[in-house]
Amino acid sequence: MKRHVSFIAIFMLLCLALTGCGSKAIEEGTTYLEDGNYKKAVTKFKEAVDKGQDTGEAYRGIGMAKWELGEYEAALSAFQSALDNGAEKTAALYNFLGSCELKLDNPKEALNYYNLGQECDDASKELMQEMKYNEIVAYEELGKWENARTKLKEYVKDYPDDERGTKEAEFLETQ
């Protein structure tokens, strides 16, 4: 997931530079995010929110920093605020939302976000694979073993070299 944070942070910075609508606080927050200084990143992104500057992107940045800090409830709230404030609905954002919900033991909500993410056109192959795997985990956490098995068969067919799929298949045989 850390790789996705770096990619999204760079993407945010490029979008802001290309559109010319970015604030200095968001640019600084993005730099802190890339450098792994998550607390300073949150401070800068909150500064942008307080000034009403690119609030959707600022909340997305807060969410990514909170995710990296292991503050999943705060990350979830920030990502939801990002959507509420006009952030682009991307596969990565939905994956973060789903992953927060999984961490917070809300697999049903996680499934909803993973499905929304898989419907997005902007998902990389790696992100799509991650969301499909996370979907299997969510079904397992719900105790919906048949759904998990069905999704796992599709997953193994699509990603035969992924060791996680093999391990999940072994686990599901015991359920």
Automatic annotation (TrEMBL):
Name of the protein: Tetratricopeptide repeat protein
Domain of life of the source: Bacteria
InterPro entries associated with the record: TPR-like_helical_dom_sf, TPR_rpt
UniProt TPR repeat ranges: 56-89
Entry keywords, A to Z: Signal, TPR repeat
Secretion signal, residue range per the UniProt entry: 1-25
Organism: Dorea ammoniilytica
Pfam families per the UniProt record, alphabetical: TPR_16, TPR_6
Membrane-spanning intervals of the chain: none
